[in-house]
Amino acid sequence: MCIFLHGIRFPTTEAPTSYYHMTKHPVCCFQDDSSPASLTDLCLTYVSQNLEWFCLKHPDGSLCLREAILFPQELADQLLAKMAIEGLLNDSTVGVFRNCEYLRLRRACIRTARISAEAFQRALCPHRLLELDASRVNADLTIADILQGLATNKHCQESLQRLALTGLTMTSLEEPIRHRFSSLQGLRSLSLANVDFYDSGLADVCSLPRLESLDLSNTSVTNLTPLLGLRERLRSLTLHQLKRLEMSTAQLLGVIGQLDLLQHLDISDDKQFTSDVARQLLGQPGILPALVSLDVSGRKQVTDAAVKAFVEERPGMTFVGLLATDAGFSDFLSGEGNLKVTGEANETQICEALRRYSEREGFVREALFHLFSLTHVMEKPRPDILKLVVLGMKNHPATLNVQLAASACVFNLTKQDLAAGMPVRLLGTVTQLLLEAMRTFPNHQQLQKNCLLSLCSDRILQEVPFNRFEAAKLVMQWLCNHEDQNMQRMAVAIISILAAKLSTEQTAQLGAELFIVKQLLHIVRQKANQGVVDATLKFTLSALWNLTDESPTTCRHFIENQGLDLFIKVLEVHTNIELFIYTDLEKLFFNNEAITTIEQAHLLHFSEAIDTRRHLQNIAETCNIYCNSIVSPSRSFNPFFPLLECFHTPGVQLWAAWAMQHVCSKNGKGLTHKGKCTTRSFPMYQFTHSLIHPQPLQIR
Fold first, then answer.
1. Are 263 and 235 in contact (CB under 8 A)?
2. What would the pLDDT profile of 336-375 be if each residue is shown by its tens digit?
C-alpha cells in the first residue's frame, strides 16, 4: 500500500489570487460520479478506514504509524480531510499526525471532528500551518483552546493565513479566554460565523495587520465601527444575519461606505427582517466602487431597476444575491451570462443558490422549495442538480424542512426512467442520505413517504450500493407504525427485494426481531380476511420466505404466531395462488432446526391441504412459468433430510423430493462440485423415486 501511494503523482494546490476567493460562500467541486473513483481517493479511503492496521497504539490510546513513511505534503492534507469528512478523526486517530517530519500538514481541515483540546494541541499545533478549518468541531474544543494551542508554536502563529471557526463556542464557562486573535499576525482570512462573538472581540480582530477577509455572520456584534481599522486592507466582508446589530441604516452604511477596497459584501438575511439597508445601499451612487460581488438575499424593498442601475455603475461585478427578494425576474438578471445571480426566477438562479448557500439552512430550504416545482416536469436525467440537492442534505441532516424539501426533489429527479441515467455512486450517496433522514425523523409521516417513494426504484434496490440491512430495518419500523395501504404495498415490496439481497446472517438477524414477523403475518391476515389477492400479499409472502431462509429463530416466530394456520387458511381460500404459498413455505419447512419445532399436527394438516399428488400436479403445470423468478435454489440438501423421514405424512416427503429435484435442476453443477451431488446418496431415494416418476411431471 505504501509503495502504491508513493507511485502517485499528486497535483499541486495553487494559492488563490486573493483571500476573498477562499472565504466566499463555498462552491463545491464534484468529482465525476460516472467515472471510477481516482486512485488517490481509493487509497486514502482504504488507509483512513483501516488505519489501525498500519499503526501501533501508544499507552494514551493514540495511534502512530508502524513505519516511518514520508507522505507528500498534499497527501497528508488530504488524508486528514478524508478522516474528518468520514467521521474517523478522533483523539486516537489524529495521533498519526504528531510526527511532523513524515506527515507534514499545511492546510488542515478538521471540520465536524470530535477531538479534545489536548489532542488538537499535540497533533496539529506543531505543524507550520497555512490554513486551519475547524468549523463545527465538537463542543469540547473551543476557540480559546485553538488559540491557546496555536500560541505554543511561534512559527504557526506567523504562518497561519486562513482560520475558519464557524459554529464553535468562544470559551468554556470555567476558563476565560487568555489568548487573542491579534497574536496571529499573519492571518489574512477569518470566519467567525455562528459564534457567540461580541463587540469586545471585534476590536481585537480589527487590529490584525494583514486581515483581508472577515465573516461575522450570525454573531452577537452590535456595533461595526471597529471595522474602520481595516479600511485600508479589508476586501471581503460577510454580515449575514447580524441578529443583534444596534446600528441604524445610516450608521451602518456610514461605516461600510468607508471601506473603499471592499470587493465582496454580503448583507443578506434569511430571517426576512424589514430593514431597508439593501434599498438604501443600492440607491447610493458612488458607494463601494471596487465592489464585484453583492449579496442582499432575503432583504425587502429590492427591485430589478435598482439592482440593474447599481450593476451598470460597476461593470466589473460578477455576482448578485437576490434569493427571497422581489428582484431577479428581468432578463438582465437572469444569471445566464457573466453576471451570476442567486434567486428563484429560473433554474440557473436556483442552482446558483444551492451552490453558494449550501451551509445556510434557510436559503437551502428556500432554494429547494423552488427547485421542487421545476423538477416536476424534468424529462431527462439531471445528475448536476441531484448533486446540489445532496450537498444540502449533507450539510443539514438535522433540519426537518431541508430534508423534507430535499427528499421530495430526490423523488422527482430519480423517478421511473430518470434513475437509469444517474451515476451509481451518486445514487448510492443520495440513498444513504435518505436512510439517514428516515432515521433522524421517524415520526414525520410525509418525510418517510418521500423517502420510501424514492427507495421504491428497481435501479436503486438492485444495482446501487448502500446499507441494505439498515434500509430493511428502517422500512420495517415504518411499516409497523402506519396503516396507509398505498405506502404499505410499497414498503413490503422494498422489504421483499432487500431481504433477498442480504447475507444469511443479516437475514437471520432481521427476521429474529419478533415485531417484524408479527407485522408481516398481520398483513397476510388482513388480506386473508378481506379475500384479497394483490401485490401487497405477494410481496409480503416473498418477504416472509426470504426472512425464514436458514433462520431457525424466524421460523420459530412464524410458527408460534400461528403462521402455519394462517397460510393454510390462505391456501384454502385462494387456490389460485397456491404456487406463491408453496414456494414461500418451502424455505420455512425445509429449515432443519425449525422443523423440529413444528408439531406433527401442523405437518399433517399441511399435507392434507396440499392433497399430495393432485396439488403437486397443479404446481408442476405452472412452475415452468414462475419458478425462475420466484423459486430460489436452496444452499444445501441438509434441510430436506428430516422431511424425507416423515413416513406418516407422504405429502411432506413428496414436497421434499420435488424440492431436491428443483435444487438439482437449478444448481446441480455447484452441488456436484461440493460433493453433495446426487439424490442416490440419500436414504429415502428409492421411496421418493417411486413417488415422482409414475407421474408425468415437468418441474424445472
1. yes
2. 999 999 999 999 999 999 999 999 999 999 999 999 999 9
Q: Return the C-alpha cell found at 394.
A: 449533507
Instruction: Report the interhelical angle of 535-548 vs 514-530 (nearest 10°).
Output: 150
Question: Does 319 or 679 have the greater pLDDT score?
Answer: 319
Query: Taking phi first (over 0 means left), then psi (-120 to 50 degrees means alpha), and beta for anything else, what does residue 245 get?
Result: beta
For 135, 399, 435, the CA distances from 359, given in Å and listed in that order, are 11, 12, 21
Q: How many Å apart are CA 697 and CA 674, to the nearest integer? A: 28
**Number of helical (H) and strand (E) elements in the chain, helices listed first:** 32, 12
Sign of CA dihedral 220, 223, 229, 233: positive
Closest of 322, 319, 318, 285 to residue 300, by C-alpha? 322
**DSSP three-state, residue 196:** coil
Beta bridge mates, 342: 321
Q: Are 231 and 258 in contact (CB under 8 A)?
A: yes
Helices (H), 116-215: 117-123, 143-150, 154-159, 199-205
If you average pLDDT over every residue of the chain, what do you get?
A: 82
- Beta carbons within 8 Å of 615's beta carbon, 6+ residues apart: 578
Question: Domain limits of the chain?
Answer: 358-466, 501-612
DSSP-derived letter for residue 177 is: -
- CA gap 6, 135 in Å, rounded: 31
Q: Each residue of 396-426: pLDDT tens digit?
A: 999 999 999 999 999 999 998 899 999 999 9
If phi > 0 it is left, if psi is from -120 to 50 it is alpha, else beta; for residue 118 that is alpha
Mean of pLDDT values over 462-477:
93
Per-residue pLDDT tens digits for 627-653: 333 334 445 667 677 778 777 767 667
The more confidently predicted of residues 77 and 693 is 77
pLDDT higher than threshold 70 for residue 607: no
Q: What does the DSSP 8-state code read for residue 576? A: G
Please give the DSSP secondary-structure letter assigned to residue 238: E
- State whether residue 133 is helix, strand or coil: strand
CB atoms within 10 A of CB 274: 8
Burial readout 593-622 (b: 16 or more C-beta within 10 A, e: otherwise): ebbeebeeebbeebbebbebbebbebbbee
Task: Give this prediction's pTM.
Answer: 0.81
Per-residue pLDDT, averaged over 554-581, amounts to 74
Give the C-alpha distances (Å, rounded to integers) separating 613 from 132, 600, 695.
Answer: 77, 20, 8
Max Cα–Cα distance, the chain, nearest Å: 103
Do 191 and 220 touch, CB atoms closer than 8 A?
no
- Could you tell me which residues come within 8 angstroms of residue 142 by beta carbon, excluding any fewer than 6 positions away? 117, 168, 169, 170, 171, 172
What pLDDT digit, counting tens, does each position of 517-557 carry?
999 999 989 888 888 788 888 888 888 888 887 777 888 88
